Amino acid sequence: MTENHRPLELVFVRHGESEGNVAVKAAENGDDSFFTEEFRKRHSSTWDLTPKGIEQAKAAGEWIRKNINGGVFDGYYASTYRRAKRTAGFLNLPGAKWNLRDYIREHDWGNLDVMTDEERQAKYPDVMDKREINPFYFSSPGGESLAEVLIRARVGILATLYRKLPNKCGIVVTHGNMMWPIRIIMEGLLPDEYLALKKKKDPRDKINNCQIFQYTRIDPKTGKIFEKFSWMRSVCPWNLNPERDAWRPIVHKKYSNEELVK
């Protein structure tokens, strides 16, 4: 039997609430007052945490320290964007030394960045129509599709973790639209399955600010170590729900000839 070089456990954390999250949510409710001239001139990488976001990050750190090996990991990684870096710091994990990596950054929206959906529709109506056809493969002008973000997640984040942390544990602080590609890769989801989950809007699949994904090869009940990542749980540390936060088995699917030609 060959030696297993996979990490033992991987934890992914979305950043806390940012000023960009507040601005976008307000705009969706008809208030675009946060999109000031000064705000529009900034790149989204500069968006900072709100006071609420800081509290969310502290709550996430507390939950991790209480529930995952005392909050001690073999590798610590975070996005270079300000809101992610500060979230990592506010987790207050004991002895953490963070590696900042640009490939962990948020989905790049290109020309659609720092713009309300109403403005996007007015300036780029054809582009926005295409987004509705298939959001997974849609790429904004000058930006990247979620399919391309997934490649960045695979060859950047996960390749690094597998190389650096064989049979060890790592933590990554990243962004909402990087969390979904992580799920797609770690759970072997197909693009159509991802789109179906997004459309279903099950509360168990919601990625809140500071949402925590924990993937493990260790059976949560028996402690037995498996070859592949076989369980995951998704936890919102500032809105805990035992039923929603429970461990879920990961089914590694393969497809027969008959299934492929349906």
TrEMBL record:
**4Fe-4S as a keyword?**
no
**Which keywords has UniProt assigned to this entry?**
Glycolysis, Isomerase
Q: What is its EC number?
A: 5.4.2.11
The answer to whether the entry has keyword Chloroplast is no
**GO MF annotations in UniProt:** phosphoglycerate mutase activity
- GO terms of biological process kind: glycolytic process
Query: What CDD domains would the database entry show?
Result: HP_PGM_like (cd07067)
Q: Would you identify the family this protein belongs to, as annotated?
A: Belongs to the phosphoglycerate mutase family. BPG-dependent PGAM subfamily.
Q: What is this protein called?
A: phosphoglycerate mutase (2,3-diphosphoglycerate-dependent)
Naturally occurring in which organism (per UniProt):
Candidatus Collierbacteria bacterium GW2011_GWC2_44_18
